[in-house]
Amino acid sequence: MWGGRFAAGPSAIMREINASIPFDKALWRQDIAASQAHVAMLGACGIIAPKDAAAITAGLDQIAADYAAHGVPEDWDFEDIHMTTEARLAELIGPVAGRLHTARSRNDQVATDFRLWVRDAIDQMDSGLAALQQALVIRAEEHAGSIMPGFTHLQTAQPVTLGHHLMAYYEMFRRDRSRLHDARARLNESPLGSAALAGTGFPIDREMTAAALGFDRPTANSLDAVSDRDFALEYLFACSATALHLSRLAEELILWASQPFGFIRLPDSLSTGSSIMPQKKNPDAAELVRGHSGRVIGSLTSLMITMKGLPLAYSKDMQDDKPPVFEASSLMGLSIAAMTGMIAGSTFHTARMRAAAELGYATATDLADWLVREAGIPFREAHHITGAAVKLAESKGAALDALELAELQAIDPRIDARVFAALSVDASVAARASYGGTAATQVLDQVARARAALGMDT
Ligand code: ARG
Predict the structure, then answer these.
(1) Could you tell me if 390 and 407 are in contact, meaning their C-beta atoms sit under 8 angstroms apart?
(2) What predicted TM-score, i.e. pTM, was given to this entire model?
(3) Could you write out the DSSP letters of every residue in 214-249?
(4) Which residues form ligand 1's pocket by a CB distance below 6 Å?
(5) 153 part of the active site
(6) What is the tally of helices (H) and strands (E) in the chain?
(7) Mean pLDDT for the chain?
(8) Half-sphere exposure of residue 78, counting CA atoms within 13 Å on the CB side?
(9) If pLDDT is split at 50, 70 and 90, which confidence band does 97 have?
(10) What's the pLDDT score for residue 7?
(11) Residue 186 alpha carbon to ligand 1 centre in Å
(12) Which residue, 312, 321, 113, is CA-closest to 233?
């Protein structure tokens, strides 16, 4: 392709280090689509003859059919997907194939292909996350009133509902999807026609190729267009933020599935056994979701470091942009699917969750709030009185609502029998009906808003 000025061919090492075909063959659909848009534009603008444009179009159709049927051939002599396809086109239609590369360069070609690929990856991840959100909403609705301990510092804090806990993740994935939508909107400009770096002297129509490829507009500056990989970085950041959320959820599932917690039973289909300990059922899928987040975050770091010192415009370092993006994308697809299966298929041991909430003095705040509300005691003093009640209950190995009225009154005479209504986990949860709170009524409101947002009711 560029042998004109060279006396000798590349060494074996050069061929190997230079080859991106082993991974960038994943871009073949985008590469053919961009070439089809380009050749149609060259023909329409009179830059190449209509019959040449027609021959190239037919040749590209043929190549696409071959790739779809047999895969993309991997020959290091043809470095990358662009050269592989061009060489194949020349085999099929002869020297006229060489007219396809008029008014473009591999630099704008790869930038275009890669944007198209990332755009598809964004759309796929978005629908995967929508399915995960639906699974969360369904389980949250089912468990809007199921009581469990809410934790801070992983210490029992206040009783919450399982539905509330699950809807917290719905919110994280809602923000993750909105990040994807933002990234998509910024990504959706066409670099095609920027050529090597400076634009082209041919009378091309960039609006036409942009529209044909579903871009909103052509990029505004050719130097920027061939140098920019922000779209890939933003995608990797969106992946990383989502992977982090998935990892936190995975960690909770792992804890909840452990025997001391015993809150859930993960589906057999997403667990494994031990080859030596027959009783074991291991949460491997959840552990791998947690583990994969490290690799996804690593892919963002990898590409940021690749890009950070590069002068304008294209440098070959940028060929290394694709492996981290491809890896992150496949890890995200698997992680989201595995998490969706775990949320949809887990059994929640609600009696056990409720018992754990009852054990941990989770309603201590309710006692303090009652003292403020019913006895007019300042909150700091109420906090102190409640601390004494917890200390007494702990020394007796009893729950707060198992203390005798006389015992409570010995701590503070302003306490009366009405207090017991506030000390149950049910009363505690029902009381927290502020907007966004944990009461079942609020969870069902959150669920209703989510169902509407996801179009689940239509
Ligand atoms: N294989 C290259 C890549 O993926 C294509 C662009 C090559 N451009 C160049 N000027 N060598 O980045």
Answers:
(1) no
(2) 0.94
(3) T-SEE-S-HHHHHH--HHHHHHHHHHHHHHHHHHHH
(4) 20, 24, 80, 106-107, 110, 314, 316, 318-319
(5) yes
(6) 19, 8
(7) 96
(8) 19
(9) very high
(10) 78
(11) 23
(12) 321
